[in-house]
Amino acid sequence: MNNIVLIGMPGSGKTTVGRSLARVMRMHFVDADEKLEADTGRKISGIFASDGEDAFRDLESKVLAECAQMQNTVISTGGGAVLREENMKCLAQNGRIVWLNRAVSDLFSTNLTNRPLIAQDKNRIYQLFEQREPLYRKYAEITIRNRGSIPFIITRLLNILPKHLHLAVIGDPIAHTRSPQIHVAMAAESGLDLYYEACHVTREGLPEFLNKVHHDGIQGFNITIPHKSAIIPYLTTIDEYAASCGAVNTVVVKNGAMHGYNTDGDGIIGALSRMGTDVKGKKVILLGAGGAALSICRKCSMMGAEQIAVLCRSPYKAQPMQYVGAKRDEAVIVDEMTPQIMAEYARSADIVINATPLGMSGIGKDFTDFTFLDALKPGAVVCDIVYKPAQTTLLAECQKREIRHCNGLPMLVYQAIYAYEHFTGLTVDKETMYDIVLQAIEA
Ligand code: NAP
Questions:
Q1: What is the edge-to-edge ordering of all strands in the sheet holding 237-238?
Q2: Does ligand 1 lie within 6 Å of residue 267's CB atom?
Q3: How far is the C-alpha of 77 from the C-alpha of 69, rounded, in Å?
Q4: Strand-strand pairing, 283-287 and 307-312
Q5: Does ligand 1 have an atom closer than 6 angstroms to the CB of 245?
Q6: Would you place residue 158 in the very low, low, confident or very high pLDDT band (cuts 50, 70, 90)?
Q7: Cβ(269)–Cβ(253) under 8 Å?
Q8: Closest Cα to atom 43 of ligand 1
Q9: How far is the CA of 354 from the centre of ligand 1 (A)?
Q10: Which residue, 124, 142, 155, 198, is CA-closest to 20?
């Protein structure tokens, strides 16, 4: 159920309510009568006068059938739309029918001169009401009394209608994604009606997907490889942290504008806090210098880490870690990822984060030397952002040495929770939501 269809007498407030409701619910709006006039290039009064009511009803049925195909749209119908059962059947297939029921005496307070069936004799409205009232009653799923206050009607509708949300995740590959499962679980907890699509979008397919966003009324989407940087030129605004990472994993769409965020950093901070630690004043070893490592490095720096030693196999690629714009980040050191150098930094480190794919299922490459773990001081923690398998070789080695550790699942879940807050504008209880998401994943 994608649309909201407003029915009711001429002057019952369908257009005014429809426009406001669409704005508040971030939906599109269409007035079927206005569309008919735009499509035909003729005034409805003219069609009635020259072609008669039957010809008008034929055109109206065609326009309503087109409106029924729209997505995420509030549709304001003409007062006589209910006269043909076929109209209501097709509108109901993809929409919830709401009757704005206004007292006949109040209808006179609106301008009825442009309504062809009433213009000559205003009292005909009583006859029309008698004829149509049983039909409105028959087709309405929801009835709202319009006593004159638009904000009151909108509030009532917002309370009654499920808050419909259409989200997506894009990437190539995408089959592995857990985002639909995670977001559907969160939406169910918040009482939102969510439709979440996983879309396989290749590098070249990004512009086409963005057309779909606007056409289908997608209100937000998550982004994974290879689009995290490629999306940036298309955004209307980008959050400061995401801009400093040069990567976006969450886009919120509002009134046609696209706003980009990156929640990976909040994800790692959430994961560490679950282990009872934070990065402020701490020495961090960050293994790897790819996209995830850059987001983590920036966040650790923003959160006041004393030192972030980025250890990687290609230090020449790690320059973005050390500079934010033209400014050097004093907390960041880049070095080689050899067993000796890892052990050297491990002696004073509080936190080790693996942001390479080493140990990940299907990669076929893994850590071979764990002597750096022996060099860690008591109380140091290890976080592997790989979550498949749940226990990587690195984490198994931590377990043997009784080093506190976690895999990449908490980061994955927290980044999704922060993305969900951007999408919905809600502030959720992170710990409750975490448990709910985890249950959904395990199920
Ligand atoms: P990426 O941009 O491809 O970066 C991978 C990094 O690992 C690069 O620095 C790469 O070095 C290095 N690397 C690759 N193979 C290596 C090897 N055999 N030895 C040493 N270094 C190696 O990938 P990413 O997006 O940052 O993702 C990294 C990992 O994090 C992936 O496993 C991904 O699934 C995981 N991840 C998890 C989360 C989560 O929420 N838990 C979020 C994002 C990513 P070169 O540049 O020299 O190739």
A1: 192-200, 163-171, 220-223, 250-254, 257-261, 237-238
A2: yes
A3: 14
A4: parallel
A5: no
A6: confident
A7: no
A8: 292
A9: 9
A10: 155
Kindly give the number of the ligand 1 atom that is closest to the alpha carbon of 410. Answer: 41
What DSSP character marks residue 81?
G
172-180: Cβ within 8 A, 24+ apart: 172/200, 172/201, 172/202, 172/203, 172/205, 172/225, 172/226, 173/200, 174/198, 174/199, 174/200, 174/201, 174/224, 175/200, 177/224, 178/412, 178/441, 179/222, 179/416
In this prediction, residue 425 has a pLDDT band, given cuts at 50, 70 and 90, of confident
Cis amide linkage into residue 173, ω under 30° from 0: yes
Ligand 1 neighbour 290 (Cβ under 6 A): yes
Which residue has 């995830």 as its token pair?
292
Mean pLDDT taken over the chain: 92
- CA nearest ligand 1 atom 5, residue: 290
Hey, whose CA ends up nearest to atom 23 of ligand 1?
Answer: 290
The residue-averaged pLDDT of 171-181 equals 93
Kindly state if the Cβ of 408 falls inside 6 Å of ligand 1.
yes
The model's pTM is 0.71
* Tens digits of residue pLDDT in 39-83: 999 999 999 999 999 999 999 999 999 999 997 789 999 999 999
365 lines ligand 1 (CB under 6 A): yes
Q: Residues 380-407: pLDDT tens digits?
A: 999 999 999 999 999 999 999 999 999 9
Give the residue, out of 298, 313, 369, 418, with the most ligand 1 atoms within 8 A of its beta carbon, to mutate for a pocket test.
313
Report, as residue numbers or ranges, the catalytic residues.
Answer: 228
CB-based contact 32:84 (threshold 8 Å): no
Task: Choose the residue to mutate in 223, 356, 386, 418 for probing ligand 1, maximizing ligand atoms within 8 Å of C-beta.
Answer: 356
First to last CA, the chain: 27
